[in-house]
Design a protein that fits this description.
This protein is α+β, with helices and mostly antiparallel strands. The chain has a domain of 116 residues: NADH Oxidase (3-Layer(aba) Sandwich). Strands 1, 2, 3, 4 and 5 form a five-stranded antiparallel beta sheet that branches. The protein binds flavin mononucleotide (FMN). The site of flavin mononucleotide has 10 residues, from strand 4.
C-alpha cells in the first residue's frame, strides 16, 4: 500500500476489527470527542437521528441481564432452553471491552425520510466513532448479532421497534499492545468506470 502522510487516511486504513480489548479504555475527554465524532456524521435533513448509550464498568454486566432475558425469550420462542454457558456468555458480552457504545438511529415522525437514510446516518455515526477511537490509538469492533434486532433490547435502550439499533461499538486497548496490520484492500472487484 502506498504510504500516506495524511492522518485521516492513515486512520481509515488502520481501523480493523479487534474482538477482545483490554483496559485502559478512552479517557472521559476522549470519550466525549468520540461521541461528538459520532454526532457529526452526515444525516439527511439534519434530523440528527443519533442515539448513543455508553456502557463502562459495572453497567456492562448490568446490561447483561437485559441480554440474558432477551436470549431466554428468543430461545423459548424456538422451544429451546439456553444452557448455563450460553447464559453466562450473554451476561458477560459487553465485558469484552472496557467501553461499549450502542449506536442507534431514531425515526423522527415529523420528517418523512426513507428508512435507508436513517440507517445510513446511523451507520455513518458508527463509522465515525470507530475512526475516532482508532485515531486515539484504541482497538474497536462493530458488533450486531440477534440482540441488535431484539425488541426488548431495543426497548431497554429507549428505542421503539421502528428505530434502528445500528450496533454495539466495543472500544479498548490492544491486548498485546500491538495494533493489527492496516487494511490493504484491492478495489478492482468493486469499482468500474461508467
Ligand atoms: C453492520 C456490521 C455488523 C457487524 N457485526 C459483527 C459481529 O456481530 N461480530 C463480529 O465479530 N464482527 C462484526 N462486524 C465486523 C466485521 O466482521 C468486520 O468489519 C469485517 O470482518 C472486516 O474486518 P475489518 O473491520 O477488520 O476490516 C460487523 C460489521 C458491520 C459493518
Amino acid at each position: 500500500m502506498k504510504k500516506s502522510t495524511n492522518t485521516a487516511i492513515n486512520t481509515i486504513f488502520q481501523r480493523r476489527s479487534v474482538g477482545r480489548l483490554s483496559v485502559p479504555g478512552p479517557s472521559e475527554a476522549e470519550l466525549i470527542t468520540i461521541l461528538r465524532a459520532g454526532a457529526s456524521a452526515p444525516d439527511h435533513k439534519v434530523t440528527k437521528p443519533f442515539w448513543f448509550t455508553v456502557f463502562e464498568g459495572e453497567a456492562r454486566e448490568e446490561f447483561g441481564d437485559v441480554l440474558v432475558n432477551a436470549l431466554i425469550d428468543r430461545m423459548k420462542a424456538k422451544g429451546v432452553e439456553p444452557t448455563p454457558a450460553q447464559l453466562g456468555a450473554e451476561k458477560q458480552k459487553l465485558t469484552r471491552a472496557p467501553l461499549v457504545i450502542a449506536v442507534a438511529a431514531k425515526k423522527n415522525p415529523e420528517y418523512s425520510l426513507p428508512d435507508q437514510e436513517i440507517i445510513s446516518a446511523g451507520a455513518a455515526a458508527a463509522q465515525n466513532i470507530l475512526l475516532a477511537a482508532t485515531s486515539y490509538g484504541y482497538g474497536s469492533i462493530w458488533r450486531t448479532g440477534e440482540m441488535a434486532y431484539d425488541p426488548s433490547v431495543k426497548a431497554a435502550l429507549g428505542l421503539t421497534e421502528g428505530d434502528y439499533l445500528i450496533g454495539f461499538i466495543y472500544i479498548g486497548s490492544y491486548r498485546d499492545g500491538v495494533a493489527p496490520d492496516p487494511n490493504d484492500p484491492a478495489i478492482d472487484d468493486f469499482v468500474r468506470s461508467w
